């Protein structure tokens, strides 16, 4: 077992960001002998049941999370106003 766990992984439930079914992600984690894998789809836990069931079958530990889309207004580095969306940096 590899001493590494991927903690930022999107399935095909994350439109335009993930391509694989949760079961495929688990199968690849097992093939790579990862001890754990996190599923962090956009704005919800849509694939976690499929993910958890597949992981249980092959002995991969699971972490559940979500990458939230946030919107806010604030200045860019040059002081110009911008609208931020998705993976908001800064304060």
Mean pLDDT: 84
Report the radius of gyration as a whole number of Å.
16 Å
- The proportion of residues in beta strands is 25-35%
Q: What's the total number of strands?
A: 5
Shape: elongated
Strands of the widest sheet, in order across it, are 1-2-3
Task: Give the low-pLDDT segments.
Answer: none
User: In whole angstroms, how far apart are the ends?
Assistant: 38 Å
The ordered H/E elements are: EHEHEEE
Largest sheet: number of strands, sense, barrel closure? 3 strands, parallel
The DSSP helix count reads 2
The structural class is alpha/beta
Give the fraction of residues assigned to helices: 10-25%
Features:
alpha/beta, 91 residues, two-stranded antiparallel ribbon, 5 strands, elongated
Layout of helices and strands:
Blueprint: E1 2-6, H1 22-31, E2 34-42, H2 48-58, E3 61-67, E4 71-75, E5 81-85
Parallel strand pairs: 1-2, 2-3
Antiparallel strand pairs: 4-5
Helix pairs in contact: 1-2
Question: In words, what does this structure look like?
Answer:
With 91 residues, this protein is α/β, with parallel strands linked by helices. Helix 1 runs parallel beside helix 2. The protein is built from two helices and five strands; from the N terminus they run E-H-E-H-E-E-E.
Quick summary of this structure?
This protein has two helices and five strands, in the order E-H-E-H-E-E-E. With 91 residues, the protein is of the alpha/beta class.
